Amino acid sequence: MTVQRVYRWVAGIICVLSVVASVRPVAAHEFSPGFLGVTETAPDAYTVQWKVSLTGGLVDTLSPQFPETCTFTGEPRGYVMGDARVQERDMACDGGLAGQEIAVGGLGATLTDVLMRVDYLSGQSYTQVLTPAEPAAIVAARQTTAAVIGTYLVLGTEHILIGIDHLLFVLALLLLVGSVKRLIVTVTAFTVAHSITLGAATLGLVNVPQAPVEAVIALSILFLAVELGQQALGTKSKRDIALEFPWIVAFVFGLLHGFGFAGALADVGLPAHALPMALLFFNVGVEIGQLLFVFAVLGAAWAWRRASLPIPRPWRAAVAYGLGSVAAFWVIERTVGAV
Question: Residue 67: how many CA atoms within 13 Å on its side-chain side?
Fold first, then answer.
């Protein structure tokens, strides 16, 4: 059985993803709704940045909690950035933060995570993902290599799995190819491409504004939707680059998606003492998440087939139009937002 035949059973999956994507606010490549950044500006003096999503009532639910040895100084500064509220405030901690516990109150009652990052004057940093199960962490003076690997591996995996636009692009690629060999080559090309631009942008070799990148990423999904629609209606020309060489399309658009990943990673930052390791395992995490999604789609398709569930004959055209409608909306929304 070819991959193309298996894909006949994924129409329900694409429809669900399209509906979810159209009804939720899509902040293309953002990480978790919460970010707690603590930067040491002088010995035992810090600037605290607290960023939390305005949706879901998280603003009133979550609050950062610091040791009793810490006191806030000066007036708080607040502003809105995208769909998040950002608050900044200066803080003094007697004896510093190393070895002290930082927590996020109310996190245990939610389904979200908070990324915490502490930057020291020495150039060292400490990054930790706080979860509902573990809403507190002891701040280390220096993060070990193993801790860096674990943190950025989780961040990369989480990032790709909450990126609905990226998942729809990958799914469109899966539907476009017609064999296991072409699938492997196409996914590999996409991986190589976004790894190149992710590394280049993160290391500061290139600098591309995020707003236009996000708009073009949406346009890439629309392009694949058009290709799928023409394929479904039988209007494709005999020689079409997207059908003959899908890996070329995957590589070109993969370069754009890499810039999107870099924008999200820039919000977190990379530890100066382990920059190559953090970048490498963030990218590995992205690939793990991508493979998990691919296997989930193929697994669901296999289960659908085994259950002999019916599916409408024009399923491919319906998928193409549904995917194209969502992508077109994103193109307009992101283009207007970039102006």
Answer: 16
Q: Does the pLDDT at position 25 exceed 60?
A: no
Q: pLDDT (tens digit, 9 = 90+) per residue, 61-117?
A: 899 999 999 999 988 999 887 677 899 999 999 999 999 999 999 998 888 888 898
CA separation for the pair 156, 261 (Å, rounded): 9
Q: Provide the residue count of the chain.
A: 339
User: How open is the CA angle 321-311-180, to the nearest 5 degrees?
Assistant: 80
Would you tell me the crossing angle of helices 164-176 and 145-161 to the nearest 10 degrees? 70
Q: Do residues 230 and 241 make contact, with C-beta atoms less than 8 angstroms apart?
A: no
- 63-65 vs 114-119, strand pairing mode: unpaired
Tell me the two tokens of residue 312. 């409408």
Phi and psi at residue 137, in whole multiples of 5°? -150, 150
Please report how many Cα atoms fall inside a 13 Å half-sphere around the Cα of residue 5, on the Cβ side: 3
pLDDT tens track for 28-74: 444 456 889 999 999 999 999 999 887 777 888 899 999 999 999 98
Instruction: Mention every residue, 6+ apart, whose C-beta is less than 8 A from residue 39.
Output: 46, 47, 49, 118, 119
| Chain centroid to CA 333 | 19
Q: Is the pLDDT of residue 202 over 60?
A: yes
C-alpha–C-alpha distance, residues 252 and 189, integer Å: 9
Q: Return all residues near 291 (Cβ < 8 A) that are at least 6 apart.
A: none
Q: Please, what is the average pLDDT of the chain?
A: 81
Q: How far apart are the first and last CA of the chain?
A: 48
Task: Return the residue matching tokens 């994103």.
Answer: 330
- Give the burial class of 237: count Cβ atoms within 10 A of its Cβ; 0-12 exposed, 13-18 middle, 19 or more buried: exposed
What is the pLDDT at residue 105? Answer: 93
d(CA 61, CA 105): 8
Distance CA 56, CA 49 (A): 20
Q: Token pair of 309, please?
A: 């569930």
pLDDT at 11: 44
pLDDT over threshold 70, residue 267: no
